[in-house]
């Protein structure tokens, strides 16, 4: 599990956000997040929550 946490920490940008990766193949019915390469509010929320959980354990 520590390796996964290290990957999450490494992906964090200097401004504290995480960037949206490339799109998965297939049909997109509606856009819910940032374009690829842009800061993602949903990935940032998830990253912050996971790191807070890990650091509190």
Describe the structure.
By secondary structure, the chain is mainly α. The protein has a domain at 1-12 and 36-57. Helix content is 46%, strand content 7%. The chain is built from 2 helices and 2 strands, in the order αββα.
Q: How large is the count of helical segments? A: 2
Could you give the order of strands across the largest sheet?
A: 1-2
Strand content: 5-15%
The low-confidence runs, each spanning 5 or more residues with pLDDT under 50, are: none
Amino- and carboxy-terminal Cα gap: 13 Å
Oligomer: single chain
How helical, in percent, are the residues?
Answer: 40-55%
What is the N-to-C succession of helices and strands? HEEH
How many strands appear in the DSSP assignment? 2
**What number is the mean pLDDT?**
94
List the helices and strands and how they pair.
Blueprint: H1 2-11, E1 18-19, E2 39-40, H2 41-56
Antiparallel strand pairs: 1-2
Keywords:
mainly alpha; two-stranded antiparallel ribbon; 57 residues; 46% helix
TL;DR?
With 57 residues, the protein is mainly alpha-helical.
